[in-house]
Structure formats: C-alpha cells, structure tokens
Design brief:
293 residues; alpha/beta; Nucleotidyltransferase, domain 5; 2 domains; 9 helices
C-alpha cells in the first residue's frame, strides 16, 4: 500500500512516498510562509510522478482537530493555515483519503512501530528543535484526549515560575527557555543561531557550555514531568540537535535518575537512528489505520 506523507515542520517540509511504512522516495523543501500548501503540493506532485497514493498523511506542528481536519493552534507557526481544512486540501489535491495529525504524535507512532522503540506500548517522545514537541502512548494507545490536546503540550510545562511569559500564555515554559526559539528571542543567547551551533560552541566556549548545561536541565525537567504523568517504559528524545547525543543524553538520564519520584521507573532514554523519517513513518501508519477503519 502506497502512502503519501507530508510533514510541515518548523523550518522545512518533509515529503515522502512510503510503501506500508517503508520509504520509497523522499524530498524536503523550505517552508513557504505565504503559501505552505501550494508549495508542498507542487513538491509532492513532482515526487509521486503521476502515480496516485492510496492514503495520505499530513503532520502539523501544533494542536490539530483530527475530525475537522484543521490546525487549531500553533503559536507563531503556519498562521496562514488558521481555519483551513487541510484534510480536504490533501484529498482534493491527491485524490485519496487523508489523515491529519500532530507531528510529535506521528513521530511517536513512527518510532514505536518502525523505529528505535519498535514494539513499545508505554512510551513518551520529546522532540527538541524550533520548539519542544511531545507525545505519549499508554498500553499501546496514543493519547489525544477530549479535544486533541493530550500529551502534546509537554514543552509548555512551567519549569521556572519566575521566568518571563511564553507565547502560549503560560510563564517559564520549557520551550520558552530551551529551544531554538529561545535562542532567537533571548538577547543574551542570540550569539548562537540554533541548537546545533550551541552544542558545537560548547565544545570550546565556557559560556556556551553553561548555556547548554542549563538547556539540558530544562529538557530534563520537562522529561521528568512526562514520565511522572505517563509512566513510560521508554523515553524517545529526538530532533536535529541529538546528532550530538553524547553531549545531551547522559545529562538527561542523570536528571531522570536524580529527580524522578523515588519508586518511579526510570525509563530507557533512546534516540532515533533516522529522526528525519520518524514523522513520515508514523503518518503512513496513521493514514493506513484511518483508511482501514
């Protein structure tokens, strides 16, 4: 079964054609803020080369309404998609049934079905990048909640009540304190354009190393909250910055060991081997399940 999967990320759109979860072809384009759907449609048509997929999966970096097929809210991201029926766009553009999902949830499905946590039934995912995305699975069920908000707001837990406001309306959120967005908005951190640059600088600059150490503690605090809430057997940590996993994972693991509830299980912390495929693989599974249903 062939699935066309489109992942609208913070800085790029990843597009893939998959056969029952196995990638056949992929491409990536920059985000077009003015017309993200139009540009993605052109790139996807070039990729599928006239063939017709049997199912379509679309991931968006925010709260989605799966029933309505729309993006509910993604603060400062894809504002042009507010109120747009993305599922209807996908079905009309490519002539197949479409499923819409939050990107972190799709990544969690991808990693627990085809990836580094394959077979896990109790898992959480935290992806670190422009923001901090999270998702949770309990007893094999991906959590969505009454209004599709469950599990995905782990980047907006308060880790510092005295910090400034986040663009979500809360204060001291993990995302507002330790993400690429934080680097861009905090005057004393702007010397580092992104998280990869921060990690690279930390290898030879004491100031950058202190910033990275604080970021790891913030990520650890958010991960502790996820683990306390969902009691996972495995914690998946992803994002481009995890290419330098040796600079991050030991600190996260140590933070969990020190700060989780005394009797709570310390989950295994794992990093995807192909994080670029996590969302696409998960979308293929979700789209196929929706079609079968």
């Amino acid at each position: 079964m062939t699935e066309l999967c489109i992942d609208f990320g913070g800085t790029a759109v990843k597009i893939g054609v998959l056969d029952t979860g196995s990638p056949l072809a992929t491409t990536q384009i920059p985000v077009d803020r003015r017309d993200p759907l139009g540009r993605a449609e052109i790139a996807a048509r070039e990729l599928i080369a006239g063939t017709r997929p049997e199912a379509i999966g679309v991931a968006l970096p925010g709260v989605v309404d799966r029933r309505a097929g729309t993006l509910v809210r993604a603060h400062d991201k894809y504002t042009s998609l507010a109120g747009v029926d993305v599922r209807a766009w996908a079905e009309k553009s490519f002539g197949a049934p479409a499923a819409i999902e939050n990107d972190a949830r799709a990544a969690l499905v991808g990693e627990t079905v085809h990836g580094v946590a394959a077979g896990a039934r109790d898992a959480v995912l935290m992806t670190i990048g422009t923001g901090i995305g999270t998702a949770a699975m309990m007893d094999g069920i991906v959590l969505r909640g009454a209004t599709d908000h469950a599990g995905i707001l782990g980047g907006h837990v308060t880790v510092d009540v005295d910090a400034g406001p986040c663009n979500c309306g809360n204060v001291g959120c993990a995302e507002s304190l330790a993400s690429t967005w934080a680097l861009r908005t905090h005057p004393d951190l702007r010397t580092h354009p992104d998280l990869r640059a921060l990690v690279e600088a930390a290898g030879h600059d004491r100031g950058a190393r202190d910033v990275l150490d604080r970021f790891v503690r913030v990520w650890g605090a958010a991960l502790v909250t996820l683990c306390h809430a969902y009691d996972p057997a495995v914690a998946i940590v992803s994002g481009g910055v995890l290419a330098a996993r040796e600079a991050i994972v030991p600190g996260l693991t140590a933070h969990l060991e020190r700060h989780m509830w005394s009797s709570a299980h310390r989950p295994q912390v794992v990093v995807p081997d192909r994080p670029d495929l996590s969302v696409l693989r998960g979308l293929a599974v979700i789209a196929r399940k929706d079609l079968d249903a």
